[in-house]
């Protein structure tokens, strides 16, 4: 993936920064934006799988690890807030109260934010290993 969004550090990390309008954006652009938001807020071990050929659920799965329940909730809250500013709302979110594994469904992009032990236990990357591993190195700081 390449960084076509050109989101600035200020947009990614600033509390009141204006996000570009992403309503109607293609799945790849949504995925890239979410990856950059997670990275800007210290999400760890971010991984993207393209799963469009394996399921009708989504085009992309994003996996990310937080260091604590508080950070997991913070990462999900930041994605929700910034994507909302960009005109993109999730369809469903699960797991926020517990904060050990939060799933955010953006239709074409599903975001999984885990604490480390939950990510290791469920090992969704192995379950979806037939998906195409997407190179996101150009999106990360």
Give a written overview of the molecule:
The structure is a single chain. The protein is α+β, with helices and mostly antiparallel strands and 141 residues long. It has a single domain (26-132), classed as 2-Layer Sandwich (Beta Polymerase, domain 2). 33% of the residues lie in helices and 23% in strands. The chain is built from 5 helices and 6 strands, in the order H-H-E-E-H-E-E-E-H-H-E. It has helices at residues 9-13, 27-40, 69-85, 116-122, 124-127; strands at 44-50, 60-66, 92-94, 101-105, 109-115, 132-134. It has a 6-stranded mixed beta sheet. The radius of gyration is 14 Å and the shape is globular. It starts with 8 loop residues before the first helix and ends in a 7-residue tail after the last strand. Mean pLDDT is 91; it is low at 1-5.
Write the layout of secondary structure elements.
Elements: H1 9-13, H2 27-40, E1 44-50, E2 60-66, H3 69-85, E3 92-94, E4 101-105, E5 109-115, H4 116-122, H5 124-127, E6 132-134
Parallel strand pairs: 2-5
Antiparallel strand pairs: 1-2, 1-6, 3-4, 4-5
Helix pairs in contact: 2-3
């Amino acid at each position: 993936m390449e960084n076509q969004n050109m989101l600035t550090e200020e947009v990614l990390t600033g509390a009141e920064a204006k996000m570009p309008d992403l309503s109607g954006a293609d799945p790849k652009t949504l995925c890239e934006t979410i990856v950059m938001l997670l990275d800007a807020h210290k999400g760890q071990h971010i991984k993207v799988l393209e799963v469009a050929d394996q399921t009708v659920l989504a085009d992309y799965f994003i996996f990310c690890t937080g260091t604590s329940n508080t950070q997991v909730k913070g990462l999900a809250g930041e994605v929700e807030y910034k994507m909302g500013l960009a005109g993109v709302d999730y369809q469903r979110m699960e797991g926020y109260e517990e904060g050990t594994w939060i799933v955010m469904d953006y239709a074409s992009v599903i975001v999984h934010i885990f604490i480390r032990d939950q990510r290791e236990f469920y090992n969704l990357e192995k379950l979806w290993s037939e998906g195409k591993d997407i190179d996101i190195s150009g999106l990360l700081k």
